[in-house]
Amino acid sequence: MTLLSNVVRGDASPLQDLGHSALPRSGPATICLPYQPESVGAARRFVVAKLREWGLDDLVDDASLIVSELATNAVRTGCQTRMVVAARRPSDRLVRILVGDGSRAMPVVIQAGPDATSGRGLAMVHRLTRGRWGVTPLPFGKVVHADLAVPH
Fold it and tell me: Model-level pTM?
């Protein structure tokens, strides 16, 4: 089994910094969702709407898969507080998807075997972001972020 974790301290736009963005935008770019399976679809619809608002339709498919995986992992933590989902444009060449939850358990990429029924999601996030994802531990949880390059 191969393990990989991208733990980042300080530069992944943790929850307290979710309001900052380098580019103007309309509408909210952060939502709070309950820890329920239905929240995965709500997170996906939120990110897709944001990308379309920003004119980034080319990123919709990859971003949908990424936020679905991160939100699913957050739902599975069993936390009872809140899950925060955000989409940011730190620059005109980058979209950052963030999912914050109340668990301090760090996500880890594993190499799932051919018969495994789960365990491939973070490997997919790693491939889609070309390794540009990470985790910022917080006193009462964490924020997982995934960066997608904006096509030229």
Answer: 0.80
